[in-house]
Write a structure and sequence with these properties.
Elements (H helix, E strand, L loop, with lengths): L18 H5 L2 H17 L16 H6 L15 E14 L3 E8 L3 E7 L18 E7 L7 E10 L8 H17 L7 H14 L13 H16 L25 E3 L7 E2 H4 L8 E3 L1 H12 L16 H15 L6 H4 L4
The chain binds zinc ion (ZN).
């Protein structure tokens, strides 16, 4: 499995309701509550009686009589989380807000509202750009589809690739395919790792700014498409005819392989001519060999090859057709990638 070589460190930090104290230090939290306690005393009120946003003390808290530790502030209905995430897409909402679709490593694809994200000095900065790799802090309510985004910390942006036209189209394609293929709130760490791996494979050498390495865009797009279809469970056997079951890559009798829209797998030359088969395209032996290699190795360990737009373009067409078939819509970015090919 190619993906097995990828880093697998999970980052999920459920934190208490008071984000500051959970993310920074308990002392800050204790200080603020000590101040609140003194103010309450000065007003002759019992502790916690009127603190905004703090629930009435439970009996055992009242008995303890002291400053509550941060843990006691966790509200079961509003758990706050910090997840490692990749931003897929944003949509404007009202005057100043954004709806953000993002893929977390631990919770799958989520959508949330980023309040005031379109105002200057918002707590999101550049973190909501397409495919920014971030640590996203958010509140989740079980009864609501949208989470509330609190802030995000940038781990890695894709700004370095901004000057590279094809890399930009590839990023749009990754985001669109992920948005279309992934169900909401179903964790898929492998898909997350796939995206991180193909994004890393586009980075210019030594982390500098500038265009992606020549050819790396086509390698990344092909690798991503193949694994996106594979992880979604729709990748057919690439060495067997779907129609008659004959082996296509028997070294003694190698056969040509064809694919068509609406067909879940490959066809041999004979089955391709069956009535009602419709128009079809050939998937070359080279493309099938590249696919087999990509299913075995991480993207950066593939055998060196002069990648260009025309390299295994038939494989990408086949994979895009599979994606479109299952997403039940055409991808907007796929034709851009094959423009002029
Ligand atoms: Zn056949």
């Amino acid at each position: 499995m190619g993906l097995s070589a990828l880093p697998a460190t999970a980052v999920s930090i459920p934190v208490g309701r008071n984000r500051e104290c959970a993310l920074r230090s308990d002392s800050r939290c204790s200080e603020s509550f000590e101040l609140a306690r003194r103010a309450s005393r000065a007003r002759g009120e019992p502790m916690d009686a009127g603190l905004p946003g703090v629930p009435a003390p439970r009996p055992w808290q009242a008995r303890a009589g002291g400053v509550p530790h941060c843990d006691t502030l966790k509200l079961p209905r509003v758990p706050a989380r910090v997840s490692e995430a990749l931003v897929l897409r944003t949509y404007p909402l009202k005057e100043a807000d954004l709806v953000v679709s993002f893929l977390t490593r631990d919770q799958g694809k989520l959508r949330g509202v980023a309040k005031r994200a379109r105002k200057p000095k918002n707590p999101f900065g550049a973190g909501l750009e397409r495919l920014s790799h971030v640590r996203m802090a958010y509140f989740q309510r079980e009864t609501r589809e949208l989470v509330n985004l609190d802030s995000c910390e940038l781990i890695h942006s894709q700004f370095g690739l901004a000057a590279d036209y094809w890399a930009g189209v590839a990023l749009d394609y990754f985001a669109e395919v992920s948005e279309q293929l992934l169900p909401s709130a179903e964790p898929s760490e492998k898909f997350f790792r796939l995206l991180v791996a193909v994004l890393e494979s586009l980075q210019p050498p030594a982390g500098g700014n500038g265009p992606a390495l020549p050819g790396s865009v086509w390698r990344a797009v092909t690798y991503f498409s193949l694994w996106a279809v594979r992880l979604s469970g729709w990748l057919p056997e690439l060495h067997v005819c779907l129609g008659c079951g004959s082996v296509l890559d028997d070294p003694a009798v190698p056969q040509r392989a064809f694919f068509a829209r609406g067909q879940a797998g490959l066809m041999c030359g004979h089955c391709r001519r069956a009535p009602g088969a419709g128009s079809s395209w050939e998937l070359s032996g080279e493309s099938r060999a590249v696919a087999a290699e990509m299913l075995r190795l991480p993207v950066t360990n593939l055998a060196p090859r002069a990648w260009a737009q025309a390299t295994v373009a038939d494989l990408r067409r086949f994979l895009v057709q599979q994606i479109e078939e299952h997403a039940e819509r055409r991808l907007l970015t796929a034709p851009l990638l094959e423009e002029g090919n």
